[in-house]
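Data card: per-record layout.
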Amino acid sequence: MAPRGEDLYEKHARNVYRYLFSLSRESDTAEDLTQETFCQALKSLDTFRGDCTPQVWLCAIAKRLWYREL
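The structure for this 70-residue chain is written out next.
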């Protein structure tokens, strides 16, 4: 069962932001990419299979967004 969007954000937003900040070293970029990470995650929440933790899934989305930002 896929996690609910609100729960996902409340539990993981801070860690996703920290991860993105560690990559970008810019708070504005980390904030923007965190927001975009959760937008993309919510769009594909029904496809989350649970093969990994939600944290790992979100960080994979975040990493792809960071690479695109580069």
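Known properties of this structure: The chain has a mean pLDDT of 93. Residues 37 and 60 are 9 Å apart (CA to CA).

See the next section for split statistics.
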